[in-house]
C-alpha cells in the first residue's frame, strides 16, 4: 500500500516521540523511584471525624517517631487549612474526603494525589528547603472548587 512520503514522516516522528517519552518514564521509574502515590486503605466517609486515624488532624508524631500529616478534604476546604512541617524529615501525608472526589497538590513539588471518599490517600516526602507552599484541590469538586486551598509552611524544627 502506498503511503505518502510526508504522512510516513509524521508517523515515524510520532512513533519516535512516544518511544522517547516511554523511555524517560521508565528511566525515572527505575533510577529515581518515581511512582504514583498508591495506598489502598478504606475508611467510612461518614465517620472520618470520629476515626482515630484522622483525629486529631494536622501534624502528629507517631510512637515510632515518624511524622504524619492528617488532612480531611471536604467541600470546600482542607482541615486543617494551615500546616507546619519541619524541614529535613520525611513527612507522610494521609488524606481522605468526607464527600466527593478532591485533589491534594502541594504546588511546586511532587506532592500530588487524588483524594477519594472512602479511601485514605498517602504519600511521603521531605522538604529540604524552608518555605511556604500552596496546597490546591486539583479535581473539580463543585461551585467553590477554586476556593479550596490550604497553606503549608516548612520551617526549622521548633519554630
Ligand atoms: Cu475540592 Cu476541587
Set down the secondary structure blueprint:
Layout: H1 5-32, E1 58-61, E2 67-74, E3 77-79, E4 82-86, E5 90-97, E6 102-106, E7 112-115, E8 121-126, E9 131-136, E10 149-155
Parallel strand pairs: 2-5, 4-10
Antiparallel strand pairs: 1-2, 2-3, 5-8, 6-7, 6-9, 9-10
The protein binds dinuclear copper ion.
3D architecture notes:
By secondary structure, this protein is of the alpha+beta class. The chain has 2 domains: 1-34; 41-155, Cupredoxins -  blue copper proteins (Immunoglobulin-like, Sandwich), CATH 2.60.40.420. The protein has 1 helix and 10 strands, in the order αββββββββββ. Strands 1, 2, 3, 5 and 8 form a 5-stranded mixed β-sheet that branches. It has a 5-stranded mixed β-sheet with strand order 4-10-9-6-7, with no helix packed on it. The radius of gyration is 20 Å and the shape is elongated. It starts with a helix and ends with a strand. The model has no long low-confidence stretch (mean pLDDT 92). The structure holds dinuclear copper ion. Dinuclear copper ion (CUA) is lined by residues 102, 137, 139-141, 145, 148. Dinuclear copper ion (CUA) binds at residues 102, 137, 139-141, 145, 148.
